[in-house]
Design a protein that fits this description.
CATH architecture: Up-down Bundle
CATH class: Mainly Alpha
Number of domains: 1
Number of strands: 4
Strand order of the largest sheet: 1-2-3-4
Oligomer: single chain
Shape: elongated
Strand content: 5-15%
CATH superfamily: Outer membrane efflux proteins (OEP)
Largest sheet: 4 strands, antiparallel
Length: 454
């Protein structure tokens, strides 16, 4: 009887504990916000009802009333991108696993009923899997760890979308400026070719010089067509991330200017290993696997042990029931659990080695991203401070000489094209810098080019 009291007390205590395993109010979104907050300024919303979705739609419409900068583009993507919203539901799946791990398995009722010439045999049993009382706390701990890992992975999805949106936004702005300057080069080449035709007709030019001007004009037409195609491609990519029609993409006119100062590498190296979400997720995964390894060893021989009250009637229907206890457990005759434990150990050691490789790679990735960031800044600065001003100075000097009839209009047009090309080159370098800056910031979070499929 004391044993039964102990079983009942254990079951009752487990029921009390399982009642504590409930769903959170926000489904784990607050953990995602906490992990992503150091890297983005924008807000995260998980709209589940029609009312909440209407509020999000109104917020997006409000953001579209002004020319879109990179920060508002990221905010629209975080509000509007359905792939991100789908990833939020992995939080719900993982949290459901946590709650389920805190639930006891339902009791089993079994009954045998036999009758022969007035003799009866009735067996009734109500059994509980008391082994789950041992494994339930461990399973809850494992699932809680998995839930925390899921939060980190969803936060990585958030930051990956932010990174992709930043890149797509800068790509679209650069494509706009390239298209604009390619159109200017094409106009200049067209004017030069037309002037050459007129001079040939007047007898002041030869066929070779005309062919050169026409060839440059043909190349300029191809460059403009390519620039327009790149503009269309860039807008389409941004449209997909924001889930907005291309005609609603009202972007700013030009890329942001270079910053006056740049970040030093030491600041990034110091925080890389503490902040990277992929390292945090891998650490949580390794801890969960260690707990699973312990559970595998615990359940190596027996993973089902059921016990409960039973009563049996044999003989006449009016005979009294015999009361007792029914036990049920598996016998480890053929499978002693070595394979299960070996498999768990192999999975755990695989994760340990992957974690070690990931930690080593993290420092290398930060150094590589910073080097690209620094080189991009220096090249863009050189274009801005040296090459573009020199081309402009040459054009200004040739303008004076042309006004004094010291050079031909073709020389002036050639230098004007060279000046436009130098500005176009600066746009390319400025574009490269902003992409490198975004990549460096996201490298700290664990988002790298390889993870983005680039």
């Amino acid at each position: 009887m004391n044993f039964f009291k102990l079983v009942v007390l254990s079951i009752f205590s487990s029921i009390i504990l399982s009642a504590c395993a409930t769903f959170t109010e926000d489904g784990g979104l607050s953990g995602v916000k906490e992990s992503s907050a150091p890297y983005i300024k924008q807000s995260l919303v998980w709209p589940k009802t029609d009312t909440e979705q209407k509020i999000v739609a109104a917020r997006v419409s409000e953001l579209l009333k002004q020319p879109m900068d990179v920060e508002s583009a990221v905010q629209i993507a975080l509000l509007n991108n359905k792939a991100l919203q789908a990833s939020f539901y992995s939080l719900g799946i993982s949290e459901a696993d946590v709650v389920q791990a805190g639930r006891l398995p339902n009791p089993k009722f079994s009954m045998l009923y036999a009758r022969n010439s007035g003799d009866y045999k009735i067996e009734q049993a109500l059994t509980f899997n008391i082994f789950s009382l041992i494994t339930m706390p461990k399973m809850q701990e494992i699932e809680r760890g998995n839930f925390e890992k899921t939060k980190k992975m969803v936060a990585l999805n958030v930051l990956q979308l932010a990174q992709q949106t930043r890149q797509a936004y800068f790509n679209a702005l650069a494509a706009n400026e390239h298209q604009r300057y390619s159109a200017q080069v094409k106009e200049s080449a067209e004017a030069s070719a037309e002037l050459a035709r007129r001079m040939l007709k007047a007898g002041n030019w030869n066929q070779l010089e005309l062919a050169r001007e026409q060839s440059f004009y043909a190349d300029a037409e191809q460059d403009l067509a390519n620039a327009k195609n790149q503009q269309t491609t860039a807008y389409a990519a941004l449209s997909r991330l924001l889930m907005l029609p291309v005609e609603q993409l009202n972007l700013q006119d030009r890329l942001p200017d270079l910053p006056k100062t740049i970040d030093e590498l030491q600041r990034f190296e110091a925080s890389a290993f503490e902040q990277r979400l992929d390292l945090q997720a891998m650490r949580l995964e390794t801890q969960a696997l260690a707990k699973k390894l312990g559970l595998s060893k615990t359940t190596r021989f027996i993973n089902v042990l059921e016990i409960g009250p039973a009563r049996v009637l044999e003989g006449q229907r009016s005979s009294p029931y015999k009361k007792g206890v029914e036990f049920s457990f598996e016998l480890p005759l053929f499978d002693w659990g070595e394979a299960k434990v070996a498999r768990a150990e192999a999975i755990y050691m695989q994760a340990v080695n992957n974690a070690a490789q990931m930690v080593f790679d993290a420092k290398s990735e930060v150094i590589e991203a910073h080097s690209h960031y620094l080189a991009s800044y220096q090249m863009a600065k050189h274009y801005r401070d040296e090459i573009v001003p020199l081309r402009k100075k040459i054009l200004d000097e040739d303008q004076l000489r042309y006004n004094g009839m010291l050079i031909s209009p073709f020389e002036l047009l050639a230098d004007a094209r060279a000046q436009v090309i130098s500005v176009n080159g600066y746009i390319t370098k400025l574009h490269d810098f902003w992409l490198a800056e975004a990549a460096l910031q996201m490298t700290l979070s664990g988002i790298t080019n390889d993870k983005e499929g680039r």
